[in-house]
Amino acid sequence: MAQPENTSSMGFVSSVKNVFSFYFLLGRKARRTKVFYFISLIPLMIAAFAKFAELVLQTHHLEGIYIFSNIIVAFYLQFLVLILALFFGTSICSEELEGKTLTYLTTRPVPKAALLLGKYAAYTLLIILMMAAGVILSFLILNADGLTDPSRWRILFRYLGVLTLGLVCYTAFFTFIGTFLKRSILFGLIFSFGWENVIQYFPGSTQRFVIAHYIKSLLPSPTTGRFSFLLFQLEPTPPGRAVVVLLVLTAVFLALACLVFSKKEYILED
Amino acid sequence: MSAVISVEKLSKWYGNVLGLSDVTLDIEAGITGILGPNGAGKSTFLKLITGQIKSNIGTVRLQGETVWNNPSLFARIGFCPEQDAFFEELSGKCFLLHMLKLSGFSGEECERRAVRALETVDLTGAGGRVIRSYSRGMRQRIKIAQSIAHDPDVLIMDEPLNGLDPLGRRKIIRLIKEFKSEGRTVIVSSHVLPEIEAMTNQIVLIHQGKIFAQGDIHYIRDLIESHPHMISIKCSRPRLLAARFIEEKDVIDVRFHEDGEMIVETNDRDSFFGRLPSLLLKNDIDIHEISSPDDNLQAVFDYLIGS
Asked: N or C: which end of chain A has fewer CB within 10 A?
């Protein structure tokens, strides 16, 4: 009788890799990805419009890096990072339950923790690429006349790093929430635009209870412009410590998500 | 022969709803049919023995190992779920390739096995199409393909013949019998008695979450044969046909429903059906519909439990 020859030797890491490649493919094909990809390109339109206004209409001149910084703070940090992490993070568990496809995964010789981590890695990479495409293209459009300036590139990479860390941490949090809450999107919206958007402006140490505080602590300073009020009251944590906190939070959320996903019984409704 | 699957005092509730109650059962190699009307607890039983859900009380052991949270066991198990759910954006072949990859096979081996599984379920030509575009029967077949592609020792199938055409049904029944002839274990659930009968003699009857009977299917058949049989007929000249039926010894009763349906009760089903064609021809009667409500498993259960 034939037996699968590789399964006994298949380690945890190979399982994660196999799940990752499966969901990276599925994620790219999903309709939701196309919608969010389009949303993530909105800043590109803003950047193109600003450049057009500057070149053709000869409107008042604002430096490209200034507009770029404002787009990052107002659109990416306050909105897109949260929305992408929320919708992709919570769906890691819920889409398998709603689509009733969980059975195909849990009847394979793959630990449940590997399923969750593989899918988390695939979706996180997908949204990082989505975010990075918009950020890089906006940067190129807005700074077309200053691309030889290394300081601008340093700013771009700093922003990319900050946004990536934000996505990694928030997605881990929403993955965890999605493993045990049925209405995780609703909770996520309240958390993102309630808790995170309010507590970060509290003075003193209270603001350290939100993820956004550590992300904003990593922004290149000073961030000036129309949306600099979004950094109001920020008493930044030193960058090194902020990175460590974000990474520790990510690890804790993922460990909790794996624990819940492995132990919890999910009943697919008929 | 030692049991491949052994369950002891197994019970499962969904809140206040009873799914399965105090089931103790040993399943040996070969084909075992899990038979019961809709909502009897068949799917709950299969979900418990495949570790999809956790029992409230009792234990499940498959080849001596516990099932819940034991992923390594699934290298040896194939499961075909009842629900019509898929990763719709994938092609049938891509779906199989990834399921095989999750089972731990190398890329080359995945390709070979996916092609073979597609051939087995007659989907070679449609393997490149996205599952979203599949017909009901094709969806059922690709679901079966994913359950057999990794050559499991134990194949567990929840209503596998649903949505298949007669030819497809025959092929899957043949496939299941081949699995048995290779010394493997197949557990198949159905609410249709003839479907199970075509595959195996060994059945487990489930009703209202309990094992009602276990053993040879002929026992059930005998009970059915000794039980007056009801046949429903819709035809062009029901009153004439009823008059002819009444003349026969084995016909106990003939009744009419408002919609023109005629219910005939006979205690010799085989003679009745043997006689019917000549009776129709002789009296120039056209049959619109004929069915046998007693073949419905619920009717058998109602009879067995005396309701």
From this structure: C
Interface contact A18, partner B, CB < 8 A: yes
Residue A114 lies in a domain: yes
Cβ–Cβ gap A100/B146 under 8 Å = no
B143, closest residue in chain A (CA to CA): A104
Give the integer Cα–Cα distance in Å for A212 and A195.
Answer: 10
Higher-confidence residue of A203 and A251: namely A251
What is the torsion angle, in degrees rounded to the nearest 10, for the CA atoms of residue B10, residue B12, residue B18 and residue B19?
Answer: -90
Q: Are A7 and B103 an interchain contact pair (Cβ–Cβ within 8 Å)?
A: yes
Whether chain A has a CB inside 8 Å of the CB on B105: the answer is yes
**Is residue B101 less than 8 Å (CB to CB) from chain A?**
yes
User: A152 pLDDT exceeds 80?
Assistant: yes
Q: How many domains does chain A have?
A: 1
User: What are the tokens at B294?
Assistant: 């007693």
B170: contact with A, CB 8 A cutoff: no
Q: Is residue A202 part of a domain?
A: yes
**pLDDT, mean of residues B92-97:** 97
B86 contact residues in A (CB cutoff 8 A): 101
- Is A132 inside any structural domain? yes
Q: Domains along chain B?
A: 5-223 (3.40.50.300), 228-304 (3.30.70.100)
Buried b (16+ CB within 10 A) or exposed e, B217-249: beebeeebeeeebbbebbbeebeebbebbeeee
Domain holding A153, by residue range, is: 13-263
Residue in A2, A21, A112 nearest the CB of B151: A2
- For B21, other C-beta atoms within 10 Å of its C-beta total 18
* Chain B interface, best mutation among A18, A21, A104, by max B CB count within 10 A: A104
B151 contacts A107? CB cut-off 8 A? no
- What is the rounded average pLDDT for all residues in chain A? 89
In a domain, A3, yes or no: no
Other Cβ atoms less than 10 A from the Cβ of A225: the count is: 18
Length, in residues, of chain A: 270
Q: Is B184 on the interface with A (CB under 8 A)?
A: yes
Q: Which residues contact B177 (CB under 8 A, 6 or more apart)?
A: B31, B199
Tokens encoding B153: 């020792």
Q: ipTM value, please give it.
A: 0.87
| Alpha helix positions (H), A107-218 | 112-142, 150-180, 184-190, 196-199, 211-216
Over residues B148-160, the pLDDT tens digits come to 999 999 999 999 9
Q: Which of B11, B3, B37, B66 has the alpha carbon at shortest distance from B202?
A: B3
Percent of chain B clearing pLDDT 70 (strictly above): 92
Please check the confidence at residue B147 and state whether its pLDDT lies above 80.
yes
Structure confidence by residue, pLDDT tens digits, B183-195: 999 999 998 887 8
b vs e for A74-108, b when ≥16 Cβ sit within 10 Å of the residue's Cβ?
bbbbbebbbbbbbbbbbbbbbbbeebbbbbbbbbb
